[in-house]
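Format notes (please read before filing issues)

Several people have asked whether sequences and structure tokens are stored in separate files. They are not. Every record keeps both together, in the order shown below: the sequence lines, then the token lines. Line labels are part of the format and must not be stripped during preprocessing.
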Amino acid sequence: MEAAIGPRLMADARVGQQGTLTRIWARRGTRPRVPRDTRYKWSYIFGAACPARGTGAGLILPYVNAEAMGLHLEEIAKAVAPGAHALLIVDGAGWHCAKALDVPDNITLLKLPPYAPELNPMKNVWAYLRANKLAISVFDSYEDILNKCQDAWNFFANDPDRITSITQRDWITVS
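Then the structure lines:
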């Protein structure tokens, strides 16, 4: 078996009608109004990225649990280069390391220490997408949430240079 192409970084993000506020440009001394929804529908983007290859694998699901994580692991396993093995960096969410989880043979999970979200570069991906694609939005319907999540993820996943620039860290090395 070939050495790992590089670690994949995994995280999930909730996107929904409560929305995300962000900063906007405005004339000094003014307080611009921005839309804010008060309804409670949302979806989750499960995403993983390989900084070395500039690739990503993602799913948009209506819930987070071990079953959803299993579906995401299957999706990641398909994206791992043939003959390679992926080290998947996950945080301490219960569904990331659930006992019922069936981890594919070409993936190994590495759980980050508690209270260390800065070690997971995917958190920067979610911040980037929220600031550039998902912020200050009022979603008309659940389908609109799904479409915006898909557009945001595809914007990220189809740009290898963006994947690498956001997720690469000095401590992540390719072996």
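For reference, the curators noted about this record: Strands lie at 8-16, 42-50, 55-61, 86-90, 107-111. The radius of gyration is 17 Å.
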